[in-house]
């Protein structure tokens, strides 16, 4: 039996919107900036969202060593691709230009302290 809150149109619409966004990730792909490519994160994305490792770009970097050519690696203007910026693994020399490009090119930028917290960050972003 369903509780009254299960039939609330606002709750249902919010849940559906979140589901649609998360489901769309398998079609649009994800680009990570920061840290090292993490097989556990890739496995979680695959098992929960159907995002395969080939749908994921990972621009590896460390706090003291910025990746080269971020501009060419990030999505083009109005791309639906999602960029996850791992803030605990990059410095300001990477985060500031990434945020500026996200604003200029209008792509979705999600920030998380650690790559292993990506699912939580995606769910929060989805609403």
Protein described:
By secondary structure, the chain is of the alpha/beta class. 46% of the residues lie in helices and 14% in strands. The chain has one domain (28-126): Rossmann fold (3-Layer(aba) Sandwich). The protein is built from five helices and four strands; from the N terminus they run αβαβαβαβα. Strands 2-1-3-4 form a four-stranded parallel β-sheet, sandwiched between helices.
Residue stretches low in confidence (pLDDT < 50, at least 5 long) are 1-5
Largest sheet: 4 strands, parallel
Please indicate the percent range of residues in DSSP E strands (runs of 2 or more).
5-15%
- Rough outline: globular
Please state the CA-atom Rg, rounded to the nearest Å.
16 Å
Can you tell me the CATH architecture? 3-Layer(aba) Sandwich
Side by side, the strands of the main sheet go 2-1-3-4
Order of helices and strands: HEHEHEHEH
- Mean pLDDT across the residues is 83
The total count of helices amounts to 5
- Looking at the structure, the CATH topology is Rossmann fold
Measured as a percent range, the helix fraction is: 40-55%
SS-based structural class? alpha/beta
Tally of structural domains: 1
**How many strand segments?**
4
Highest-level CATH class: Alpha Beta
Distance between the termini: 26 Å
């Amino acid at each position: 039996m369903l509780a009254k809150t299960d039939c609330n149109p606002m709750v249902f619409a919010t849940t559906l919107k979140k589901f649609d966004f998360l489901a769309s990730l398998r079609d649009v792909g994800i680009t990570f900036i920061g840290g090292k490519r993490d097989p556990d994160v890739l496995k979680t994305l695959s098992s929960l969202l159907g995002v395969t490792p080939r749908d994921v770009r990972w621009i590896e970097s460390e706090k003291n060593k910025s990746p080269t050519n971020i501009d060419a690696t990030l999505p083009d203007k109005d791309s639906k691709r999602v960029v996850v910026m791992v803030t605990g693994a990059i410095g300001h020399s990477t985060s500031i230009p990434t945020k500026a490009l996200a604003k200029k090119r209008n792509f979705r930028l999600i920030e998380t302290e650690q790559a292993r917290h990506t699912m939580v960050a995606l769910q929060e972003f989805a609403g």
